[in-house]
Amino acid sequence: MRLDPYVSVDGMPFSATRDDVIRVHGQPFSEERNEVELTELDYGDVVFRFQDCGRLEEVTRRAKVLNLNTVSVPFPSLKTFVFEQDPRHFERAGFLVSPKFGLAFVPDSPYWVTALARHGVEQWEAMRPSLPAPAQGPAPTETTRQP
Predict the structure, then answer these.
(1) By Cβ atoms counted within 10 A, which residue in 61, 128, 130, 143 is the most buried?
(2) Tell me, what DSSP letter sits at residue 22?
(3) Residues 6 or more apart in contact with residue 117 via CB below 8 angstroms
(4) What is the pLDDT of residue 36?
């Protein structure tokens, strides 16, 4: 996963629309409304989540390595990296959230990383522990996108 925090994920800008994503990735395996009122386009190895207004909110991708500008971080080292590099990190509903890097992930759920739009971090900060966490993506499997 190549992340330019708050700007783009693997070259897909956070300004992208649903139609932009479909133009690049084709029709998703599924399109559903999740428990936090976001519309998900699920491609198996990547999930794009949109607000009702069409604004891209989150992108979750399988990421054995996260590339942040000039730094590559293997997923098993991501928790330590965030703790050392982002003093503003926090936990919500089992997710470790990094405002500095615009990402959230479950350290014990290997390889799924969620990139957040800038406005999304505020929603994570405001989330009460009793509220459901945004979906982290499909269950970790070896499912990959079919051509």
Answers:
(1) 61
(2) H
(3) 6, 14, 55, 56, 57, 58, 102
(4) 84
Nearest to 51 by CA among 98, 18, 95, 4: 18
d(CA 17, CA 57): 10
Residue 98 makes CB contacts below 8 A (sequence gap 6+) with 82, 85, 86, 88, 89, 104
CA dist., res. 110 & res. 30, Å (int): 22
pLDDT on residue 115: 97
Q: Name the percent of the chain in helix, strand, coil, to the closest 5.
A: 20, 35, 45
| Amino acid 78: pLDDT | 97
Which residue carries 């965030």 as its tokens?
82
Report pTM: 0.84
Taking the CA atoms of the chain, what radius of gyration do you get in angstroms? 14
Side chain identity at 53, as an amino acid letter? C
Residue for token digits 């993506």?
137
Taking the C-alpha atoms of residue 89 and residue 35, their distance in angstroms, rounded to an integer, is 24
15-72 pLDDT, tens digit each:
999 999 999 999 999 999 988 889 999 999 999 999 999 889 999 999 999 999 889 9
